[in-house]
Amino acid sequence: MTDPLARNRLSEEGSPYLRQHADNPVHWQPWDDDAIEAARERDRPLFVSIGYSACHWCHVMEEESFSDPDIAATLNDEFVPVKVDREERPDLDDVFMTVCQLVRGGGGWPLSVWLTPELKPFYVGTYFPPDASRNQPGFRQLLDDIAESWRTERADVEARADQWTSAVRGELEDVPDPIDAAPGSDALTAVADAARDRADDEHGGWGGSQKFPQPSRIHALLRAADRTGDDAYTRTATRALDAMADGGLRDHVGGGFHRYCVDRDWTVPHFEKMLYDNAELARAYTAAHQATGDDRYAEIAGETLDFVDRELSDGRAFYATLDARSGDEEGSFYVWTPDEVDAAVADAGDAELFRARYGVTEPGNFEGDTVLTVAESVETLADDHDLRESEVAERLERAREQVFETREGRTRPARDEKVISAWNGLAVRAFAEAGLVLDDAYGERAAAALDFAREELWDAESGALARRWLDGERSGPGYLDDYAFLARGALTTYEATGDHRHLAFALDLSRALVEQFYDENAGALYFSTPDTPLARPQETEDRSTPSPVGVACETLLALDAFAPDDRLGEVVKRVLETQGANIRESPLGHASLALAADTYETGHLELTVAAAELPEDWRRVVADTYLPDRLLSRRPPTDGGLTEWLADLGVSDAPPLWAGREATEGATAYVCRRACSPPLTTGEELSEWIREFRP
How many domains does the chain have? Predict the structure, then answer.
């Protein structure tokens, strides 16, 4: 058998991030049994470097340290160097990031962790420069020091590793004592109050030196405003939405949003574009359009989804990321100088308007260039140039198209083309929701992506979902977020299209989710299966994506209406009781769970439609009405047509929301929230009964 440590093995891996390091002089290993066994045979520590393709500082550390022959020699001689793609192994990332946060008080990527051969962490950090700089230890010297400690202070190192392992297990696996009753609408109010009180009223959003999108908080604010009539909640939500839409977070030329901004006023972004951000922001803007009636939010939602379909897709599934860098420069694809705008736009007057609109100046706002932000309103430009507002808008759009065309000739950011189940689930949900609210075509796009996931990522025979697909191969076990997000996307696609195959897929995923991740004794949904190294995480808080536990609860609660014998609602009740104390102690971090708790208490607004097609005026009622706890249940017009559906769903009898609800005279609707309307046959009646059952 060949020695796995004798060479860099990453060229054999599917992950684009791992393959980016295949030419390093470091003898990188993937996280696998061969690498771990080699560490134990040689009694060497593992050095584990965790990152992802679009991570700027991951690229920097590769260029500075992992390409350095001397540093590589130390890594190869003293350690077992292991590379991990956090997007493919979120369980490892979660465990070791928790260690970093416990020990260092913060974290980030690249994440650097040293482990004993028993996989217990004993030293941790993030980015290290090759040599000491600005109070940061140099990576070169650090490797020598850790290797020396391993040889001469072994007992102390192992004692620290045991202590850290115990701490991280307690942090990740322990569950709080369950409360007497599951939280309900009080949790929603607590989240909305905290979001309002802690918001940046001057610049919008949350945070100081960095600003991240927080879609779950926006959904909580919009729902609380709808529930209470308190306009302060709406103002906080729309201030954040407007700031993101006007600032540098949004790509004003090509659409879509960057990862986050590095300043308080949303000017300069970290330029990578992630599928999950764009999916969740598109859904937030769609909801804001419904809640406020502002058509601008609908335009931004559509623009964002169009970007995703154009830049992060092959027409079937959705890809993971676009890199922050173009060639070797961060952000160069997106920034402009006045001369570059003038060269791109044929008409000098159009170019002048474009520069004024987006603040393109000689000094710039980013290393001598300009990140485009909305600097002047169309109304002001019209007044300043003695033009009609419609003419200004038309000329700005013409200029934007020409700037976009010029930008297409630049070196493009690298694209990570792996297909991640969880992130595709978020995108499917966003497209499906837009299919109901904005345009049927978005629903059709959601269905196409969902069909891909069912065919390429799901193994129906074993009931298992893969984490990712790339170049015709699926790889890795799915985690809680994969099952929960994709199930939620499938359910929303059923609502948008009426195709019960998508509902059946949602049920299949949810049944597998409960089987693999629910611990009845603990009353907890874990992120991974019990074989996760070191500790089994729970992800109850919203992070860069919504809490998988929160989305799982929301989805299981909805699907319980279709398959009550599966007792999915009881799982939700137990989880909410278990996590109730956490929700109440830290509401802002648990927005997704609070939204699920609110629906658990108030019940869904069930709209059951018995019809071959959803009548157009009914569709408009659903599209134009903000219904955050909507469950649109479509069924065949007769019970005879329902028999095949029930067999496909694995359900023996018609569930209560379908039983006895046939069409009467043409398409028929029933509106229910723990009580029901009579059969309805007009859009006007549907709208009236929706108002009647609003909480």
Answer: 3
